[in-house]
UniProtKB/TrEMBL annotation:
Top-rank lineage group of the source organism: Bacteria
Species classification: Bacteria, Bacillati, Cyanobacteriota, Cyanophyceae, Nostocales
Region described as Disordered: 1-32
Residue stretches of biased makeup (Basic residues): 1-11
Protein name: Site-specific DNA-cytosine methylase
C-alpha cells in the first residue's frame, strides 16, 4: 500500500547555499567573525599609607599565636577562670578546646617570642609566624634561642624558616654543648629553671630520676613526670638511705595529687615538692597525713 503524502511542508533554509554573507551582516550575525575588544585595567600601586596598613596587618597575622600565648598566661596568672572552673586546664579545655599541652605550648612560645624581639628588630628581621617554629627552642637558654633563630633564618635564605630547619639548628647546638650524663636512677636532684619557659614553676623543686637519657633525665616531680636537660639539674648527693626516704615522700605526694585538686591543696603539695632536705618536719608530716586522709577515696591505686 502506498504511503500517503505528508501534509507538512519541508522546511527550507533561509540562508543561501552560498557561504558569502551580505555586506554588513558578516560581523553582526556570525560569532566566529566577531571582534572582542578588551579594555586594559590599570592596577594602581599601593600608596605609602596602604603599604603601612598592609605591613601592620601582616604583623598581626604573624603574631596571632604570640597574642594567644600572652592572653593565656594572663588568664592563668590572674586566675580569671576561678568563677567557672577549678583549674586552668579544665577552663582551657572547655573554653578553647585546648589540651593541657596545647595551652602551655602557646604560653611557652610567647616567652621565646618576647626574647627574640629583644634581639631582632621586627622592622629589619624575620620573626616566627607559628608556634611550631619556636617549639624546638623552648629548652634552650635565651641567648641560645636568639642564636638559633638568626642561624635558621640565614639557612632559609632570609625567609621564615620551617620548624624542621629550627630543630636541626637546635640539635647542633645541643651536640656542641654535650656533657656526659652521670646521673643514676633513683638519684635525687634539684631543678634549675634558668629562665627556661618549660620549667616555669619547677625551679627549686626536688625530683627523683626515673630514666637516664643521652642529654636529659626523666624525673618524678610532685605533680608528675618531666624530661629535663642536664644543664637544668643539680644532684643533692644524698646517701642511699636518704634517697629511699625521699622516694617514699614522692610516692605519697603523687598518690594525693590530681589535676582536679583545689589550688590551695596544689600549693601545699608544691611547697612539699620544694623542700631542700631529705625529710619532712613534724608539721609537714601532719599536713601530708591530713591530705592523705582527706583524699583517701581519690588516691590512685
Amino acid at each position: 500500500m502506498a504511503k500517503p503524502p505528508s501534509s507538512r511542508k519541508k522546511a527550507t533554509s533561509a540562508v543561501s547555499s552560498d557561504s558569502t554573507l551580505p555586506d554588513g551582516l558578516a560581523e553582526e550575525e556570525n560569532p566566529a567573525l566577531a571582534t572582542i575588544n578588551v579594555t586594559a585595567v590599570e592596577v594602581p600601586e599601593l600608596t605609602e599609607e596602604e603599604q603601612r596598613d598592609r605591613l601592620h596587618l601582616e604583623r598581626r597575622v604573624e603574631r596571632a599565636f604570640f597574642e594567644a600565648g600572652k592572653a593565656l598566661t594572663e588568664l592563668r596568672d590572674r586566675r580569671l577562670y576561678r568563677s567557672t572552673h577549678k583549674t586552668f586546664e579544665e577552663y582551657c579545655r572547655d573554653r578553647f578546646a585546648h589540651s593541657r599541652r596545647q595551652s602551655y605550648l602557646l604560653m611557652d612560645a610567647a616567652v621565646v617570642f618576647d626574647n627574640l624581639l629583644e634581639k631582632c628588630d621586627p622592622m629589619d628581621h624575620i620573626l616566627p609566624t607559628s608556634e611550631r617554629q619556636i617549639r624546638p627552642m623552648t629548652k634552650l637558654e635565651p641567648q641560645e634561642q636568639q642564636e638559633v633563630w638568626l642561624t635558621a633564618v640565614e639557612l632559609a635564605g632570609g625567609k621564615v624558616p620551617t620548624g624542621r630547619i629550627v630543630k636541626d639548628v637546635v640539635q647542633r647546638i645541643m651536640e656542641r654543648t654535650q656533657v656526659p650524663n652521670t646521673y643514676q636512677i633513683g638519684e635525687v636532684c634539684q631543678i634549675l629553671a634558668k629562665d627556661n619557659p618549660e620549667l616555669r614553676g619547677k625551679g627549686g623543686c626536688w625530683a627523683i630520676v626515673s630514666a637516664v637519657n643521652e642529654f636529659s633525665c626523666t624525673l618524678r616531680v610532685w605533680d608528675g613526670e618531666y624530661t629535663i636537660g642536664l644543664q637544668h639539674l643539680k644532684s643533692f648527693n644524698y646517701l642511699p638511705q636518704e634517697r629511699e626516704q625521699m622516694q617514699l615522700i614522692s610516692d605519697r605526694i603523687n598518690r594525693v595529687y590530681s589535676d582536679s585538686l583545689e589550688e590551695t591543696v596544689k600549693s601545699l603539695l608544691q611547697s612539699l615538692g620544694k623542700v631542700n632536705r631529705p625529710y619532712l618536719t613534724a608539721v609537714e608530716e601532719k599536713l601530708l597525713s591530713v591530705l592523705e586522709s582527706e583524699y583517701s577515696n581519690e588516691i590512685k591505686v
